[in-house]
Amino acid sequence: MEYPTDTSNIFTRFDINIEVARQEARKVSDDVLLQKVANCVVEGDDEEIEDVVKEAMKTKSPMEVINEGLIPGMNEVSRLWDEGVYFLPQVIVSSDTMIAGISLCEEKMGKPVEKKAKVVTHTAEGDIHDIGQVIVNALLNASGFEVINLGADVPVDEVVEACKIHKPIMVTGTALMTTTMTAFPKIAAKLKQLNLIIPFVCGGGAVSEEYVTSFDLGIWGKEASQAPGMAEDALNKASWTEMRAKWNG
Amino acid sequence: MEYPTDTSNIFTRFDINIEVARQEARKVSDDVLLQKVANCVVEGDDEEIEDVVKEAMKTKSPMEVINEGLIPGMNEVSRLWDEGVYFLPQVIVSSDTMIAGISLCEEKMGKPVEKKAKVVTHTAEGDIHDIGQVIVNALLNASGFEVINLGADVPVDEVVEACKIHKPIMVTGTALMTTTMTAFPKIAAKLKQLNLIIPFVCGGGAVSEEYVTSFDLGIWGKEASQAPGMAEDALNKASWTEMRAKWNG
Amino acid sequence: MQLSNSMTYSSSEEMMFGTARKPVVTKRGLKIGGGYVIPEIVPHPRPGSEKSMKTLLREFERANGDALERCVIVGHPCIVVENEHVFQITHNPGWGGEIAAQTARQMDEYLERYGLKAAYRSTIADLRKPDMVNMRDSDYTREVLESFNECAKYADIVSIESMGGKEIFDYSIIRNDIAGLLFSQAVLGGRDMEWLWTQIVEIAKKNGCIAGGDTDCAQANTAMFMAGGFISKDIPHTLAALSRAISAGRTLVAYECGATGPGKDCAYENPIIKSITGVPISTEGKTSACAHSDLCGNVIAAVCDLWSNEAVEYHNMFGATSPAVFTEILGYDAAAMNASIELGYQKEFQACLVTSDRYRGPHGFMLCPDNAWIIGKAVVDNNESLYARARAAAMKCGDLMLGDSQLKLTAFEKESLQSYMKDMESLPDKEEDFIDMCLKKYNKVKGFNPASYGL
Amino acid sequence: MQLSNSMTYSSSEEMMFGTARKPVVTKRGLKIGGGYVIPEIVPHPRPGSEKSMKTLLREFERANGDALERCVIVGHPCIVVENEHVFQITHNPGWGGEIAAQTARQMDEYLERYGLKAAYRSTIADLRKPDMVNMRDSDYTREVLESFNECAKYADIVSIESMGGKEIFDYSIIRNDIAGLLFSQAVLGGRDMEWLWTQIVEIAKKNGCIAGGDTDCAQANTAMFMAGGFISKDIPHTLAALSRAISAGRTLVAYECGATGPGKDCAYENPIIKSITGVPISTEGKTSACAHSDLCGNVIAAVCDLWSNEAVEYHNMFGATSPAVFTEILGYDAAAMNASIELGYQKEFQACLVTSDRYRGPHGFMLCPDNAWIIGKAVVDNNESLYARARAAAMKCGDLMLGDSQLKLTAFEKESLQSYMKDMESLPDKEEDFIDMCLKKYNKVKGFNPASYGL
Ligand code: B12
Ligand code: B12
Fold it and tell me: Are C157 and C147 in contact (CB under 8 A)?
């Protein structure tokens, strides 16, 4: 059968209307070896990375490789993602690559590099929809945060307990069911009771801005991609009210 | 164009599946004149009624005409409506006819007949959707209740005031908008405060059973046709909790 | 005002969804009735949001924004957003203007960023309840007109669901009184609309806005909803169908005063209007089940130009908020119709919509394009008066229902119809005589004030 | 288990909505796939109602009852009601049985009182999250099977959305890892389904109940929702389309184990399944916007037998409660399709549905009947193993997408697709080799336990 060639009155391919021009990653280092490291991260080449990092470490310190190769490479990835050039899997694979590189450096140093800060993440009790959380984890990792990943179907008390132990700068929750998101206000109340005033970012399909901003500590997360920015704010000591004012409303 | 003759896989005419066999009204009196009066009511003949009632009153007392002609006629109408033979307009026109007949009798007696009891009806503040209330009024009238009709768009305090003055056995409210039904719990609260423990039947498109049974005094009315039965219950001193248990749940 | 005396379409065969003889173009270049069906989404604010202008602005910002965003997400090329005023908006005429301005800005942004073509309709609430105010001279009357002024500055289209005749209608509809319907809908409603729409058209012109049209929602839809589905016993469906036929001559007055369409979604009489005037129309059917139920869910789309959901209260559903959800559905409904146009299958597609409901009930039957056209013809052939054309339309509608053996009626529905037909036959021919009769007959109806209609 | 080796339909031209080669008949005599499209309504309980069996019974009594009543009100001749278990129902296996029994009683009453033909589908929740339990041996596993036992006593149809392979899928989908999709969906998912469905079919038989079918919701739908609409950047639509092609061979296992359909609504792979097996299928598209958004809202109806809304939470809308509203819409959708059948216009109608979405995006494209059939053919022609048929289906799907110039792809989508194709080409041909490779590659994925799949 013949299909009409003009379909513009049936649908509009808005994705093509807004297609972003391809962009190359910018150069991050004048040093050939470090630039190679960065390239591996930008391309998410988790096979090459080992050789390239080892090669670089022959002449550079592990911290130099991290700070001038791996991390600037990942920053380029974040930029390309923010600008709509990169898709999520590219970010994840780059992040995997960067983490593999960092591991090698840490091995050489004999101690782990310091992470920016801890973030506790979980998916609500009774809820196994954790893809949103998986993305959040990956993006936080990629931005240098230490993720305390409690997984899916996590009881309220377990989340509170983890906060007591880890004293994270931020805690996140994901829920995709109206019957499970009710755990969030309970967690928030218990945290307050224990005087653990930690920004609590809640997201996931079922969860609305209205719902999350109806209880103290709550900040609504629309897109997983907001998580690193939010964590940066928390790191900079923004209070939950300030964060809510910035990200919601 | 030709239309398919077998439409049974497109739609089913359930109205025809459940069509009720026509029924004649039953005889209500052995007296020819009184039966004539009843017939006028059953047929909703508001032109004949005057002559027929006058004729009857030549040999019967007005109270006989009412109690053995007009009211039994109207009872037949109610029965036919309950059984699905009559439609609403037939009930209304019969009711108009009965009321015209009663007026003539009252004129002759020089005083009004006693009504069963008073019912206050209204449509919520801000809401002009009063067709539901109009039907309720007509059906209550037809069943011998005195309707204190406050009309549409009635402020909360006016309803409360009317209850204070008239001490009705029941009060009703109609609302078709989610933005106006919020007046009902306010009315109920004020009635309770004044210790006016009157069953408050609320109905109308926007109003759900859940909503109405969430506040004291409230009983949900699904169909206008329930109003007379509810008023009878109230007349028999059923409490609002008993009425709610019977009509809702 | 000159009563219409001819049909724009010379046969119902020429009438098709998506195309109107007299298309209109909105501010952002959206052509309505220009060859394709466009979805019209109507979000309704949640209870509580009517408290202040600020809360309403926020509510509509989300609701209208969600609808626009959903078009981009699934690829619906264009959309009309309608906001129907709730009492508080029209009561504070500035509010409607602010809401319209805000929505216009959102639409400009979507046009620029994505290329989405959108248009906005403001529907002013007719606050004038005839038994409570003087229709032509009351604070409410002034607020209504002032609201038109404010909204026309920013909206693409303005509309109203006017209330003339409602007091007599409510009295008559529950009394099987067909004369009362003719009087309330045609004589009173028509006169009120002439008074009102002359002014609305003026206001719209002044502001470069489109005067959309009116609907006999207050009357013919009340009748249709009371007739209800297959288990309701409020009024016969045949009476509701006659009320619909009567409504055509009434709603037509807006166009006779200079309105250009698109007609209002809830005017189920619109197929008749289109056959006479050729203006684009909005209709609603199955996808407006969120707002009410009817027995003509598909057939009512047969000649639509906009396709609407009537109204959906803003709330979260699993997939998205309700305006987004209904935008998606309406847009896909429209996409299938538009695909049929591109394929040259629109006649077949239309036949499927019609066949779905032609014999489901009286309303579906009389609104089929062929019957709608025939009723329209009765309207224009009897243009001696508002009354005469309405009576002719109703009688024609009755003849059609009684004359098609495939339209099954219960014994009760059929007998009722036969008696309405007899009643109508016995009515006076001249409007003056009819008015005299009615002024007497209804003089004791609570709140009826002939002066409201210049009588 | 014998892997399918032939197509039931010899060409996509023979496939049409409403008719399946192997229709099934329910307890109250409803024939599914017997010539007409039937609506399938899925109400979802409100939060809080999962507290106890009593509150759930009350919730479903209303929700399911509202749906049945609405059919009678607007004249929809028949309906399937599906209830998807929430966690608490399957966790308390007696509850699902009670709910099914109550619904069966309601349906008997509607049959007797009005002549409405209705059927009931229980969908058990698959509580077995692979990274948390042993799929074949855990309390959850036993609860799932026990729930089937309880529900099959009263339900007409039982179904499940099974979870096998999900742990590897989630890891792979966000890493552009097509091998991981093949492993998780086809190899692991297929094995889990064989284990599970052999038992389900047994249980259904014992109880005179229909073993409906499964869906790759957990995987292919996750991919589809992540690909999202036109502004999402989570994963490429081309990858989601490949995941869908892969899912066909997995979902097919239910039928290879003896399930007879109707397939589950959310299995967008169902057109492929129908082309191979001839079983009736349920699909969902535009009218399931209440539950999720997709880019194939119309085309997915092209060969459906049941037409569903996926899930709508119980709440009040202006017109009625949500299950009543969506029953009304679905029924009208079906009525238009059925009218086309009666008129002999079904081919034209189907063409409109297809044209609406064929080039809207990759998913709409690959699910057009012609393409679905071609992918089905790749499945049966490569029946050496679960893996081989899935890979062949995916590669065929990729070829189709790259080969049709009317299907526009962004540069990024296209390059991604080309690289998935290269990846797939380089994979081993033999399932054993592929499994060896994957067991190594994924051995560190959190919670992956090969023994859950008999590996
Ligand atoms: C995939 C899926 C599944 C998979 C889940 C697998 C998994 N590991 O996640 C499977 C098949 C297992 C599944 C099972 C069920 N599901 Co399910 N499922 C879905 C589906 C189709 C897509 C969800 C998804 O992955 N979306 C993509 C992700 C990326 O989106 P997301 O999590 O919302 O995350 C985005 C944002 O919310 C945000 N975000 C999320 N978290 C956070 C956190 C932070 C900090 C920030 C900043 C942002 C953020 O970022 C992401 C975007 O960037 C939805 C449909 C829908 N409309 O959502 C139904 C849905 C969620 N499921 C539903 C149901 C009912 C079920 C079952 C009960 C079905 C059954 N009867 O078996 C079971 C539930 C079992 C249980 N106890 O949990 C319902 C829920 C209804 C409700 N609201 O209560 C839905 C809505 C389907 C429907 N319409 O009926 N499901
Ligand atoms: C007719 C109608 C009108 C007429 C009303 C005329 C009148 N005098 O009643 C007119 C045109 C004037 C009108 C105006 C408006 N309307 Co209006 N209207 C309707 C419509 C189409 C039908 C309502 C109706 O008459 N139904 C028939 C009657 C008989 O039903 P009912 O009142 O519910 O009564 C039944 C039962 O509820 C019960 N019952 C009722 N009361 C009681 C009491 C007791 C004691 C008992 C036992 C039973 C009982 O008995 C009856 C059955 O037997 C509905 C659509 C719908 N889905 O309901 C919209 C609707 C109610 N209107 C709506 C709106 C928004 C408006 C306007 C704001 C529109 C506008 N922008 O101008 C204005 C409101 C003005 C105002 N301030 O009130 C919305 C309300 C949304 C909401 N829920 O908040 C609706 C739902 C339409 C929609 N889907 O958007 N409307």
Answer: no
Domains of chain B, start order: 14-109 (1.10.1240.10), 118-247 (3.40.50.280)
Q: What is the span of the domain harbouring residue C68?
A: 12-445
In this complex, the residue of D298, D335, D355 whose CB is nearest that of residue C343 is D355
Mapping DSSP onto H, E and C, the string for chain D reads: CCCCCCCCCCCHHHCECCEEEEEEECCCCCEEEECCCEEEECEECCCCHHHCHHHHHHHHHHHHHHHHHHHHHHCCCEEEEEEECCHHHHHCHHHHHHHHHHHHHHHHHHHHHHCCEEEEEEEECCCCCCCCCCCCCCHHHHHHHHHHHHHHCCCCEEEECCCCCHHHHHHHHCCCCHHHHHHHHHHHHHHHHHHHHHHHHHHHHHCCCEEEECCCHHHHHHHHHHHCCCCCCCCCHHHHHHHHHHHHHHHHHHHHCCCCCCECCCCCCHHHHHHHHCCCEEEECHHHCCCCCCCCCCHHHCCCCEEECCCEECCECCCCEHHHHHHHHHHHHHHHHHHHHHHCCHHHHHHHHHHHHCCCCHHHHHCCHHHHHHHHHHHHHCCCCHHHHHHHHHHHHHHHHHHCCCCCCCHHHHHHHHHHHHHHHCCCCCHHHHHHHHHHHCCCCCCCCHHHHCC
Q: Out of B88, B147, B176, give the residue to mutate to test ligand 2, the one with the largest number of ligand atoms within 8 Å of its CB.
A: B176
D318/C343 touch (CB, cutoff 8 Å), yes or no: no
Q: How far apart are CA A138 and CA A78, in angstroms?
A: 12
The pLDDT confidence band at residue A149, using thresholds 50, 70 and 90, is very high
Work out the pLDDT band at A35, boundaries 50, 70, 90: very high
Please, what is the average pLDDT of chain D? 97
Question: What ipTM was assigned to the predicted interfaces of this complex?
Answer: 0.94
Residue type present at position C233? K
Q: Which candidate from B6, B13, B206 shows the least CB-CB separation from D75?
A: B13
* Chain A and chain B touch, per 3+ beta carbon pairs within 8 A: no
Q: For testing the chain D interface, which of C72, C352, C406, C408 should be mutated: the one with the most D CBs within 10 Å? A: C352
Question: Considering only alpha carbons, which residue of chain A is nearest residue C318?
Answer: A206
- Condensed to tens digits (0 to 9), the pLDDT of residues C15-49 reads 999 999 999 999 999 999 999 999 999 999 998 89
> For position D31, which CATH number holds?
3.20.20.70
* Residues found in chain D: 455
Give chain D's domain count: 1
What is the C-alpha to C-alpha distance for residues B199 and B219, in angstroms, rounded to an integer?
A: 7
**Is the residue at C3 inside a domain?**
no
Q: Flag residues of chain C having pLDDT under 70.
A: none
Distance from CA of D455 to the nearest CA of C (A): 37
Residue C314 lies in a domain: yes
Torsion angles phi and psi, residue B145, rounded to 5:
-95, 155
Query: Looking only at Cα atoms, what is the longest distance across chain D?
Result: 63
The verdict on residue D306 lying in a domain is yes
Peptide bond into D262 cis (omega under 30): yes
pLDDT of residue D454: 96
Which phi and psi angles does B53 have, rounded to 5°? -65, -45
What span, in angstroms and rounded, lies between the C-alpha atoms of C115 and C30?
12
Helix axes D190-206, D386-403, angle to 10 degrees: 110
Cβ distance C237 to C363 under 8 Å?
yes
Which amino acid, residue C251? T
pLDDT of residue C235: 94
How many other C-beta atoms are found inside a 10 Å radius of the C-beta of residue D411? 12
By the CB < 8 Å criterion, does B179 face chain D? no
Per-residue model confidence (pLDDT) at position B85: 87
Q: Is residue C1, in this structure, part of any structural domain at all?
A: no
Query: Would the CB atoms of B3 and C410 count as touching at under 8 Å?
Result: no
| C47 contacts B126? CB cut-off 8 A | no
